[in-house]
């Protein structure tokens, strides 16, 4: 039987059925699955990451929400095109390290 984290992940993925972005309320999700809000945070922070194809924005407070956006191939392609334009033909090792650092800062 699936654990709570698996159930929460599957539920969130179903919300993406016809959408590239969703907004959820941490409190409402916790209530729905009868878990503490930190369990929702755990699932989002471990299963909806950039390497897995998602970006996450959150707003805390009474009307707070979590917005999860599915990164599409066209987004990645456009991003790589911009990097190629920025880099040009060649870059030094120092410039490459700076570029990589900037990628992780975004």
Indicate the structural class.
Answer: alpha+beta
Q: What general form does the structure show? A: elongated
Radius of gyration: 17 Å
Number of helical stretches of at least 4 residues: 5
Euclidean distance between termini CA atoms: 38 Å
Main sheet: strand order: 1-3-2
Helix content: 55-70%
Largest sheet: 3 strands, antiparallel
Can you give the mean pLDDT?
A: 83
Uncertain stretches of 5 or more adjacent residues: none
The overall strand count is 3
Portion of residues in beta strands equals 15-25%
Order of helices and strands: HEHHEEHH
Protein architecture, described:
The chain has 106 residues and is an alpha+beta fold. Helix content is 56%, strand content 15%. The protein has a 3-stranded antiparallel sheet. The protein is elongated. The N and C termini lie far apart (38 Å). The mean pLDDT is 83.
Structural key phrases:
15% strand; 3-stranded antiparallel beta sheet; 56% helix; alpha+beta; 106 residues
Secondary-structure map with pairings?
Blueprint: H1 4-15, E1 21-24, H2 26-33, H3 37-47, E2 54-59, E3 65-70, H4 73-87, H5 93-105
Antiparallel strand pairs: 1-3, 2-3
